[in-house]
Amino acid sequence: MRRAGPIDSPTDPFASVPLPLPGKKPKVEGLPPGVSRDIFGPNGQPEQPKQEPAAGGGGLPPVAPPPQPWPMQGPPQPPASFRPSEPPPPPPGYDHDPPRRRILPTLLLVMVVLGLLAYLVPAVVMSGSVLRGTRVAGIDIGGLTVTQAADKLRTELSARLDRPVTVSMGGREETIQPDEAGLELDVVATIGEAPSGFPTPAEVWRALTGTTDLQPKISIDAAQLARTVEGLAESVDKAPKEGRVVFSGVRPRAVLPQEGLLLDRDSAVKAISTAFLRSQANVALNLVPAKPKTTEETVRQAFAEARRAVAAPITLTKDGKTAQLTPAAIAAHLVYVPDDDGVLKPHFDAEKALEPIQDQLVDLAKLPQNATFAIENGKPALIPGRQGRGVDAGRLATDIPGVLVKRGSRTIAVSLAAVKPELTTAEAAGLGIKENVAEFTTNFDCCQARATNIQRMARQLDGTIVLPRKTFSFNGTLGEPTAELGYLEAPQVVGGRMVNVMGGGGSQFATTLYNAVFSGGYENAEHTPMDYYAPRYPEGRDVTVLYPRRDYTWVNNSQYGVLIKAVATPTSVTVTLWSTKRYDKIEAVVSERRDVTAFRRQTSGQPGCLPTTGQPGFTVDVTRVFYDGGKEVKRDKKVTTKYRPQAQLACLATSGG
C-alpha cells in the first residue's frame, strides 16, 4: 500500500466543495468514510444555526451551540491492514488447568495399573492349582494340582489315620482297627475345601503373606462300626437273667433273677467314632446295668404254684373217654413267663401235650391230616391231607392254669372242634410243586459243634412250604437256638470278631439257603453279608444271621408254592427248592475284585482266643441275570459287597499254674 501525501485543509470546509447551480441539488461527492449526507440538511445544504436576537436588540452574540459529533453508523473500525490478528482457537482436549492440577489423576492411574499388575501376575501364576500356603493337617499341598494334592494326601495322611484305637470295657481291652470302624479318608471332600482355580485378591494376599489350614474330611461307615460294636458286645455282655421256675423231672426249682451288664451300644459307636476322628489312642466304653423284669418275690410266688401244678395228674374226659396228663407231662409243657409287670404267669402248650394222648379222646380216623410232599424217584409226590376233629387245644390251654392253682378236682371236660389242616390236599395240589428249581451245597469240617447245629437246623427246616407271595423268615421259622432244642455253643464271626454263640454255624446254613433262593429267582428281602470273605462261599453271596437281631428273609414272588428240602451229612448241607421253573437259566455276573486290602497278622493271649485264617479285604459287585427262551429277559440291580480284611490271629498258649 502507498503512503498518502499531505492534505491542505481549507479553513472553510465547504469552500472546497463546489456550489450547485440554482434550481439544482448540490452534488456531494467524496465524503469521508462514515460521513452521512444528512449533514447537509433537507436541501443538501448545511443547516445554519438560528440566531436569536439578544435581549434589548443588542449585546453579545448568541452562545454557540455545543459541538455535535458526526453521526456514525457504527463504531469506527480501523482498516483491516491495521487490525491486530486474533489468536487461534485451542486444540481439542486442551487443558486450560495449570500443569500442577494434571499430576494427581496421572498418579492415581499409575497406582491402579500397578495394583492390578500386583494382583494379576501372581493370580495367573497361581491359577489352576491349590492356593499356595494351603495345608491339610500340616501337610502342604499349596501349588499342586488337584490330582497331585489328592495323591499326596492319600500317601501321607492315610498313613497317619491308619492307627488303631484300644477300647476298654469292664476290665477287658480290645483293639479296633480303622477298617473295623469303617474309617475312610474322603480325599474328594477334603480337596473340595481347599481354594483352587483363579484366586481372588484376598486369596492372593493370604497366599503371599500367610497360610490356609484345613482339617481332613474323614467318614465313618456307621453300619460297619455298629457291626463291630455288636461283636464287642457279644464278648462282654452279661444279659440280665429273669427269675423263672424250671422243672427237674417233676420237681420245680426256683431260679432267682440277676442283674446284667450290657455294653451301651449307641454310646460306644459315638465314643469310637470320636476317638478315630480326634486321633485318640484309647477310649473307655460304658457298661450299663440291665435290670430284669422279675423280682425275688414274684419267683417265690410262681414256685409255690408250680409245686401245686405237678402235685397230681390232670384228667381229661370226653364222651366217656379219658386221658391223663401226668405230672411229668405237665412239667414238660408248663412254663412261667413274666408279663409286663414282671409277674410270672403259667403258660401251657396244650397242642404239644395233646399229641401223645389225642387218640385216647378222638378216633384216629377223625383227626386232621396236613397235606405234604415226599420226594420219590426224584419227583415230589403229594401226600393228601384231610380235615378232622380234635380236642380244642386253645380252650384247653385257657382252662389248665385255673386248675393248676386250685385245690380240689383236677378233671377237665374237653370239647372237640372241627380242625382244618394247615394245608389241604386241594391247596397243595394247586401249588405247582413239581420239579427241582434250585439246589446248593456247602461243606464244613466233621464232628464239630457247628456241624451239630447245622444238622439240627436242616431237620427243623426240612419239608417247609412257602406259599405264593409269602415272606420266609429264617429266625421266625427256626426260632431261638437253645440247649433244650439240641443246639450247642460254637464259634461264629459277629461284628468282625470270632466269638462263641449258641447255635454257631447258622450263618453257613443261611448262606446255603440264600444261594438256593438266588438260583431259583426269588426275591431277596433282607440279608446282611458276612464281614469277611470265606472261600467256601461264592463272592458276594453270603449271609450272616444272629438271633434275634439279624435275620435273613426272602419273598416267594411267584404264583407257585416252594417246598424246601434240607439234608445234612457229617460234612455238608444241601438245600433244594421244589416248585415250577419260571426261567431257563439264572446266572450271577461277578465283577473283578477292587480296593483289595492286605490282612494283618496278630497274636492274642486272651482267654477263649479263637485262631483265624487271614483273608484280604476287597469289594465286589454281583448282578443276577435271568434268561428265558435263550435270551436275557431281565437283570437285578447289582449288589455290592465290601469285605474287610480278616486278620490272621494266632493264639498264644497259656501255661497252667
Mind summarizing the main beta sheet?
A: 5 strands, antiparallel
Radius of gyration: 58 Å
**Low-pLDDT segments:** 1-7, 53-58
Let me know the average pLDDT.
81
What is the helix tally? 15
Helix and strand composition category: alpha+beta
Domain YoaR-like putative peptidoglycan binding: 190-279, 306-412
Region (Disordered): 1-99
Pfam families: PG_binding_4, VanW
Keywords: Membrane, Transmembrane, Transmembrane helix
Features:
about 650 residues, alpha+beta, Ubiquitin-like (UB roll), five-stranded antiparallel β-sheet, four-stranded antiparallel β-sheet, 37 strands, disordered N terminus, Glycopeptide_resist_protein, VanW family protein, YoaR-like_PG-bd, Vancomycin_resist_VanW
Describe this structure in words.
With 657 residues, the protein is α+β, with helices and mostly antiparallel strands. Among the domains are: 301-423, Ubiquitin-like (UB roll), CATH 3.10.20; 435-651, no CATH class. Helices cover 25% and strands 27% of the residues. The strands form 14 sheets. Strands 31, 32, 34, 35 and 36 form a five-stranded antiparallel beta sheet that branches. The protein has a four-stranded antiparallel beta sheet with strand order 22-30-29-23. The chain has a three-stranded mixed beta sheet with strand order 2-1-6, covered by helices on one side. A hairpin with a 2-residue loop joins strand 3 (165-169) and strand 4. Helix 5 (222-236) crosses helix 6. The radius of gyration is 58 Å and the shape is elongated. The relative contact order is 0.06. Residues 1-7 and 53-58 have low confidence and may be disordered.
